[in-house]
Amino acid sequence: MNPESMRSPEPPETDPTGSQEDRTRSGVFLGKFLGIRFYLDYSWFFIVALVIYTLSTFFFPHELSGRDPGVYIAMGVVAALLFFLSILLHELGHSVVSQRCGIPVPSITLLFIGGLAEISREPEDPQTELKIAVAGPAVSLVLVVLYHALAWVCNAAVFPEGVAVFKWLASVNLLLVLFNAIPGYPLDGGRILRALLWMYSGGFRRATFITSRIGVAFSWFLMALGVILIFGGQWGQGLLFLIIGSFLKSAAESGYAQALSKQFLDGVRVRDLMTHDPVCVPAQLPLNLAVDDYFLTNHHVAFPVIDDDRRFRGLLRLDSLKSVPREKWPYVLAGELAQDHDAHLGIPAETSAASALRLLLIPGQGSLGVLDEAERLIGIITRHDLLHFIRIHTELED
Ligand SMILES: [Zn+2]
């Protein structure tokens, strides 16, 4: 199964959050091919072990009886590795077409439920979207034919172990194609439907809205199925359906949020949406006075902290105050606490609003200081500011 759901619509290289994205990408670096970095997510080791175990103890002994356990393990290992190679080739299909269309693909990661091609931005037109979306399943279909042919060759050569392995690979790849054919975003089928809707009727946002609704509905179906399976005693499969369902659901929802932000935040800078000259806490103020003079009098949950020359020191937040015992408040300066917790929560005023939104959607991070070239604080921007801006535009449009 292969919801390569998180093709992040990353902005171009000037984006200050780009490197952060990179740092969060965990996994083993495999190598570089066609300019794409390949990674194995750590979860992959768990899932490959599970696949090998299931194949060599249940599936292959059932298909082909009377072999040594070692033979089944060898079959399981070969089948599992070729299966993951198949997923990699599916992702490579998307990626090569994407690069041909001028959209770079910095990396491909093999995750626990499939591959993830990091396509650096959303296509600008439906034709490109369609080509990229079709390429992955097309590769998988070719693999189905290829594995069937190999099974046939093994059959002719009287090599039943090979027949069993290749038949399994053919059917698993076919399953991959069928799963991805479901027309819910962010599955390939959803992207294909989105491209068609986008092409033949109303804009990108409407098309994303419809297909992400289908994606969410399908994810609920998967999760319900998972619960039914668990109650039926098949907890392993049930759990898998639950995990895949919840993964799809959040990907479908965030896909729509990204479509909105693409439509309305395009070309908008943080400078355009920030609150100018916010109330600031001086860095030299002890916490007890900061609480009395700022938190209790202005009703905000976070204040920017600045030096004498308006240099930004970080955000002083209500929740970080709680980490300091109350009796120590007179001895801790606002600047020290802000620097400890939020040293990096300032962004340049020229940052795109879309990348600010991505930072602000990180849980627990509701506001950011806005800085000029000399790192002096000139404003503040909150999650609420951006979501409000998007909401107003959405309602004006409908
Ligand atoms: Zn795909």
Note down, in words, how this protein is organized.
This protein is an alpha/beta fold. It folds into three domains: 1-181, no CATH class; 191-266; 270-397, Roll (CBS-domain), CATH 3.10.580. 59% of the residues lie in helices and 13% in strands. The protein has 14 helices and eleven strands. It is elongated, with a radius of gyration of 26 Å. The model is unreliable at 1-24 (pLDDT under 50). Zinc ion binds at residues 2, 4, 90, 94, 136, 180, 188.
List keywords for this structure.
398 residues; alpha/beta; CBS-domain; 3 domains; 4-stranded mixed beta sheet; 11 strands; 59% helix; 13% strand; elongated; binds zinc ion
Largest sheet: 4 strands, mixed
Query: Any idea what the radius of gyration is?
Result: 26 Å
Helix content: 55-70%
SSE order, as H and E?
Answer: HEEHHEEHHHHHHEEHEEHHEHEEH
Judged by helices, strands and strand pairing, the structural class is: alpha/beta
- Uncertain stretches of 5 or more adjacent residues: 1-24
Q: How much strand?
A: 5-15%
What would the principal axes of the Cα set say about the shape? elongated
Q: Tally the structural domains.
A: 3
State the total count of DSSP E strands. 11
The averaged pLDDT comes out at: 83
Bound molecules: zinc ion
Strand ordering within the main sheet: 1-2-3-4
C-alpha termini separation: 36 Å
Q: Please report the number of helical segments.
A: 14
